[in-house]
């Protein structure tokens, strides 16, 4: 248990640094960045205390906001997906989530992908509508959400597959 | 009372969620209004320090281009000097009464630069310690970059011209008409100049400069050239697309402009 906590703390720090130092400056095709710091929220333990989880996600988002000078958009988006994660988990994994036996490292690829897609889409819709914050730019919001989501989903799946733990 | 407490305990997760969401929304709304986004910003020593460290590594990759650019600027300045008839520059003595220039320049290094969002900010590695204060203009050798919005001890945040909150007075080089420079968030090379009256005679390729009507920028700093223009709906103003001289995605060093008269002018205005 203690080793797991340490792992999550290290993951938290590494993901933030990776995001702000490298991935915020990718600007693929001029404006696309993958936001893979949400892997922390995706991989948080199923049985974590919900209040604690909400607060940690909020802090995670706020740290990214501090680095990218974006007010509170990442904090809002992270808090939202942290709050809705149980719903996404239940709708994707069904019974195995109810019995708290699901582990993201040993579920089927299709289910994992579906879970990632759900979470990333929710996060990005929230993120870009708050970042642009102007309904006359709704096409721009849709465009950014769509392409950034694709980019983030691909990157996230790559990371998840590459760093899969085979100890189970 | 018991029921209220029970309700609170039962819904504590949702309540916590709503509180956190409210805080982040408040921060977001605050960041969308000009001169307010000051609570969460990258000028603190932690994020500033990390960006500084990161940039001290990535600096080396652009040294060659940076050198070329400096040489070009030197060449340009030397040509200007010889045109003024001053072959050698005296470093010993400047008569500050007869040659009192109202602006001084401080160089700084850009350690973080955004250009892909709607509201872009730039972080530089000088702050109050080098007397860089809010409302100072920031330029490069080619043209304007933005205005200092927030400064800490060692770092300052610049509100880039590529920011939906930025409004800068700008005008035509060949006449005195002026308007305000804004950005519509689409192309980081093109900004928009609004409210130039239709009496102005403009052509594609005309130069747009700052017009010195505020204390932030001196008159005559380059901004860009006219890429295209159209009249607005009731045909009283031009809407002009301006192609920037600066490549906003590639800024190495900048100069912050301090106006010596700013306090005097402000006290007159109030």
UniProtKB/TrEMBL annotation, chain A:
InterPro entries, alphabetized? Cell_shape_determining_MreD
**So which domain of life are we looking at?**
Bacteria
Query: What transmembrane ranges does the database entry give?
Result: 12-29, 35-60, 72-93, 113-133, 145-163
Q: How does it sit in the membrane?
A: Multi-pass membrane protein
> Is Transmembrane included in the keywords of this UniProt record?
yes
Asked if the Swiss-Prot or TrEMBL record annotates the protein with the keyword Ribosomal protein, the reply is: no
Q: Where in the cell is it found?
A: Cell membrane
Q: Which UniProt keywords apply?
A: Cell membrane, Cell shape, Membrane, Transmembrane, Transmembrane helix
What cellular component GO annotations does this protein have? plasma membrane
Q: Which GO terms describe its biological process?
A: regulation of cell shape
What's this protein's family per the entry? Answer: Belongs to the MreD family.
Q: What is this protein called?
A: Rod shape-determining protein MreD
Please name the source species: Aquimarina muelleri
UniProtKB/TrEMBL annotation, chain B:
| Record has NAD as a keyword | no
Please give the biological process terms from Gene Ontology that the record holds. Answer: regulation of cell shape
Q: Where is the Rod shape-determining protein MreC beta-barrel core domain?
A: 110-257
Record Pfam families: MreC (PF04085)
Q: Name one GO cellular component term.
A: plasma membrane
Keyword Coiled coil recorded? yes
Alphabetical list of InterPro entries matching this protein: Cell/Rod_1, Cell/Rod_MreC_2, MreC, MreC_beta-barrel_core
Q: What are the record keywords, sorted?
A: Cell shape, Coiled coil
Q: What positions belong to coiled-coil segments?
A: 60-87
The record's similarity note reads: Belongs to the MreC family.
Its annotated function is as follows: Involved in formation and maintenance of cell shape.
Q: What is this protein called?
A: Cell shape-determining protein MreC
Upper lineage: Bacteria, Pseudomonadati, Bacteroidota, Flavobacteriia, Flavobacteriales
